[in-house]
Amino acid sequence: MALHLTGDPAADQLLSEDAFALLVAMVLDQQIPLERAFAAPLALRARLGGELDAAHVAAMDPDALVAAFSEKPALHRFPAAMAARVQLLARLLVDRYGGDAARVWTTAADGRELLAHVKSLPGFGQQKAQIFVALLGKRLGVSTPGWAEAAGPFGDAGSYRSVADVDGPEALAKVREHKQALKAAAKSVAVLGAATGGRGARRR
What residue ranges do the domains of the chain occupy? Predict the structure, then answer.
């Protein structure tokens, strides 16, 4: 199965075939557009001389990795912080999985263990871990028993909640609409709370 996330066939192919590249993209997928985050591994590979694997990144001089992230156009709004996080990810993958990023999911016996493996990675909280589990199951055909349950609402079929539901431009637009609706709802609740001085929240 292949991913269709960036609009760039080469970037999508790398994500589909390279587990480490996919994990790097997922780490970067915050506070920047989805397409930019998931296209970044291809650009990073080029900046590292055509080599992008966990062992190489783990062993790099940290300043050199920051320079690669910071080279214009920067790979993220916060290139230094994200370079450090990606290097932590690479080192964990080397220490725990022998540098084989795919073992994060291939060694999981069930969905609960898969989610635990992903949550233990730098940059993966509960929600991001569930989204990644859903991405593996929905888009890459990972068939770990119980993956959909472990992914929570992101594992629901026919939903447009996250990157796990993106299979092209139309789906991406629907995911963005969903996220905008959530933000609007959250803003309305915040405005209402401020207008009432929080009185509603204190009522019993």
Answer: 9-156, 168-204
With b for 16 or more beta-carbon neighbours within 10 A and e for fewer, the 187-196 pattern comes to: eeeeeeeeee
CB 89 within 8 A of CB 23: yes
What phi, psi does 49 have (nearest 5°)?
80, 25
Mean pLDDT of 46-52: 96
On the question of pLDDT at 184 being above 80, the answer is no
pTM of the model as a whole? 0.88
> 121: alpha, beta or left, given left = phi > 0 and alpha = psi -120 to 50?
beta
Q: pLDDT band at 188, cuts 50/70/90?
A: low
- CATH for 9-156? 1.10.340.30
CB-based burial, 40-62: b 16+ in 10 Å, e otherwise = bbbbbbebbeeebbbbebbebee
111-137 b/e (C-beta count within 10 Å ≥ 16 → b): bebbbebbeebbbbeeebbbbbbbbbb
Distance from C-alpha of 111 to C-alpha of 154, rounded to nearest angstrom: 13
pLDDT at 201: 46
pLDDT for res 95: 98
Nearest to 32 by CA among 58, 6, 71, 3: 6
